[in-house]
Design goal:
With about 350 residues, this protein is α/β, with parallel strands linked by helices. It is about 50% helix and about 5% strand.
């Protein structure tokens, strides 16, 4: 697209979390403004590229999900731009929860509010400072509320000259159709196994066999692979937390006190951590079903990780897998809509008890 000179004014980078959509968007923006571009990448040496490395280029703008804090009552991305630059440069594959922790809103859900629209319009109508293109990257564009989307329709459809919108999302259905119709979609696949293993080996100095095991466990999700790398040095693994919950659900009459304590702990987590827990459970159910029907060697988990699930996997059958996953999906759906976490996880626990005992 860049080589042909026919660059769409509004692009939608669509890819699952962990596919690298954000660093790809930044790299593409850097390439557009590189002073000495190579055939397949920016030079990395010119003044523009050096500014891009620090996210400090005057023609590069960001909009990301934020929420109010004690210091900021009507938040916009610009109020957190220093934290954003630091978070991205330390980990370009950061997750939404990583970002929320960086700005201290773990207990809230980030949004892209209508207050952002005036700032976006102002920035893009300014004359370009030093680059050829003014680029605005909107991370998790599905976090736009309806008011923000409607205010941006006109400028996305008819942007100022030499302006490029790059919207990033992992949820196609989370963006208004009127916005989708004005963008050109770029589907970003998960990185292939060998590329991701090479990244962990060369950049993170992980031994090849261990890197390969982590990639398989992460399902080629680079963000999850990096999270697994951090988890090696921290407390319980996510699969152990999930397995402990299932055991409490199975023996609910004996473990009800322990279950209530667990529900209290889950309620203290951020909304995204709660949702990620349930999404992890859906993935686990899939792997257990595969192991149950085709053997553990076909599941994503390595032998050591799967050992704890071996007994549980036999309870996941074609008769209950649909109820199992549907229940967790409904839980994730209600978390996104600010359901009371204590009531939700207690209800989920009783429902999972019935499903497992079927």
């Amino acid at each position: 697209m860049a080589g042909s000179g026919r660059i769409a004014h509004a692009l939608l980078f669509m890819g699952q979390t962990g596919s690298g959509t954000l660093p790809l968007a930044v790299a593409f923006a850097q390439y557009l403004n590189c002073e000495n571009p190579l055939p397949d990448d920016s030079c990395g040496q010119c003044p523009s590229c050096r500014q891009y490395e620090k996210l400090s280029h005057p023609d590069l703008h960001f909009v990301v999900p934020v929420n109010s804090t004690d210091e900021v009552k009507k938040p916009r991305t610009d109020d957190f731009i220093m934290q954003w630059r630091q978070a991205f440069t330390s980990n370009p594959y950061l997750t939404l929860n990583d970002w929320y922790q960086a700005i201290g809103i773990e207990k809230k859900q980030g949004i892209i509010a209508a207050e952002e629209s005036a700032g976006i319009t102002h920035k893009l109508f300014l004359k370009s400072f030093s680059g050829r293109f003014k680029v605005l990257i909107m991370w998790y564009a599905d976090k736009m509320n309806a008011a923000t989307s409607n205010k941006l329709l006109k400028i996305i459809e008819e942007p100022p000259d030499d302006s490029v919108f790059i919207l990033i999302t992992d949820r196609y259905d989370g963006i208004l159709p009127t916005i989708l119709s004005r963008t050109q979609m770029v589907k970003v696949p998960q990185p292939d196994t060998e590329t991701l293993v090479g990244y962990l080996k060369n950049e993170k100095h992980i031994e090849v066999n261990r890197a390969r095991s982590m990639v398989r466990l992460a399902g080629n999700n680079i963000s999850e692979a990096l999270q697994l790398l951090r988890s090696d040095k921290e407390s319980e693994q996510p699969e152990q937390v999930f397995l402990n919950w299932l055991r409490m659900c199975w023996n609910i009459s004996k473990d009800y006190k322990k279950l209530y304590t667990w529900v209290e702990e889950m309620a203290r987590l951020s909304r995204d951590e709660q949702r990620n827990f349930l999404v992890f459970g859906i993935s686990t159910a899939r792997e257990c079903m595969i192991a149950n029907l085709a053997g553990p060697q076909h599941a994503r988990y390595n032998e050591q990780t799967f050992a704890g699930f071996e007994r549980f996997s036999k309870m996941i059958t074609p008769h209950n897998i649909e109820n199992f996953t549907k229940t967790l999906q409904e839980g994730a759906f209600h978390i996104e809509r600010n359901a009371n976490a204590k009531i939700l996880f207690l209800d989920l626990s009783f429902r999972m008890h019935h499903i497992l005992r079927m």
